[in-house]
Amino acid sequence: MANSISVEQTSNSKPPLPPFTLETAKAKVQAAEDAWNTRDPERVALAYTEDSEWRNRTEFFSGRDAIREFLKRKWAKELDYRLKKELWCFMDHRIAVRFEYEWHDEAGCWSRAYGNENWEFAENGLMMRRFASINDLPIQESERKFRWERV
């Protein structure tokens, strides 16, 4: 992996920008949580560089188009998706988060996913790498923790 982080990778900026402080790292995590809870693949994809590299569970892909397609598939299957992210640690242009999200399938079976993400950012604040490790737990509807209204 290259350590070179270049603003030429994209033409726009997504504050807060690295290097991160505790305050700006928390803001970056909250912005990601808010965007993902919209379940809007177009909006979410704009937070990533055009050539962003992803690992999500066992899927490996890169680029905004692939991100959009992945998110469309994900949210077509994971209904009433609600996500909570928490800053785990940060340094310079990298952030690690832990997260939980809940969703149900077409049959009404609920699941909660637990995981960790490692993020690496370009100097313009767009994410150039996202590596996610995720485990699922079937739950009953009565066990749900995240019950706020849809955005």
UniProtKB/TrEMBL annotation:
Pfam families: DUF1348. Residues 1-20 are annotated as: Disordered. Transmembrane segments: none annotated. Residues 1-14 have a biased composition (Polar residues). PANTHER family: SLL0781 PROTEIN. This is Nuclear transport factor 2 family protein.
